[in-house]
Amino acid sequence: MAYRPRVIDQVLSRLVQDVPAVALVGAKAVGKTESARRLAATEIDLADPDRRAVVQADRAAALAAPTPVLIDEWQYDPDTWEAMRSAVDRDPRPGRFLLTGSVNPRGVRVHSGAGRVVRVRMRPLSLAERGYPSTVSLGELWHGHAHVAGESEAELSAYASEIVASGFPAIRFAGERARIPLLEGYVESAVEHEAPELGFTPRRPDSLLQWLRAYAAASSTTAAYTAIADAIPEEARASRATTNAYRDVLSQLWLLDPVPALPLGRNRLKELGRLPKHQVVDPGLVTALLGLDNGSLLGGRSGRDAGALRDGPLFGTLMESLATLCVRVYASALDLKVSHIRTARGDHEVDLVVHAADGRLLAFEVKLGATPDDRDVRHLNWLADRMGADLVDRVVLTTGKSAYRRRDGIAVVPLALLGP
Fold this sequence. Notes:
The protein is an alpha/beta fold. It has helices at 7-15, 32-37, 49-57, 59-63, 78-90, 138-143, 156-165, 169-172, 176-197, 207-217, 225-230, 240-252, 283-290, 294-298, 315-332, 378-387, and strands at 21-25, 42-45, 69-72, 97-101, 117-121, 136-137, 337-342, 349-355, 361-366, 391-398, 404-405, 411-414, 418-419. A 6-stranded mixed β-sheet has the order 7-8-9-10-12-11, with helices on both faces. The two termini are 23 Å apart.
């Protein structure tokens, strides 16, 4: 499969010119090694036991290879991370090391130290990275001079297909019949093999899977963790300490990707709630966990074991999950954060907010329909009244055909037309 350029590529290219080491982290199979390999002069694969043994015999010699040195799957030998940090202390030239990892091991301190390592998270493919031509730039929206126009060829069925296909490159571009078994195998491997490798072995082998399935059913909601636990079949329920351990191990595997609430402390938004919005790293995994396919999404079904946490079909929910993935990927090119807004009383909420430390915001609402009406933009207008000039733009992401601005200035953009 030919390499498909990623938004993170430009971020990595900048960083290797500025800092000694860059750690590219994220879930298994998102494409970390392929992106890092493009910049590396030397590659060390620590997942290979033979190569790992050679490195462990003389780490200094291995790290002295031509730079940048790519240390792939560094978590298989955490001492190599420490050796790399020591090497950077001695010689802090930019572009010395690239590190990739699919697990954040317990007990290993992964931090930048005195400017040693910059950590960058890589997520699955956005729609722009999958080949959809983008005509509206998130970067231009952020800078206040976006041209909002364009026509999308993506039908509603195309969004359902993209959700089910996932953004994992090897799965997304596999044959259609292979995708669901591959996604199911991905989940099975994480639960049955990778979690135990982190030292986590639940007493009931299926209990971790049951919890992950319940979490997936809560995608794009701020459901309490107690509600998620209560949605699990009674015979598979676990104690709070155990469910906290589930969250911990799944986070270490980068499978959970919750959207944090917009930080408090903003004078004009004092009444915000603090709960994160639940998201799995890729909505394709949600479909695998809940037994959904293209037809069931389009037919309005919710999937197995989702009823206790849902009051409607999952297509709209997973459309928001897909939009969240895309916006996060595009925002990463500008080093911007992505959060959500929900007031403590629940009377106002904004699906996604891109923001910077200076207080500026770019707000997105996600709608499964094609043409938003005034009711669909009421929360964006509420936010505009509160934030004034600090709200740089308001956008509704849709499944429609055309990108345009409404008379009130709100941009309406088909998700397939949005790019970095």
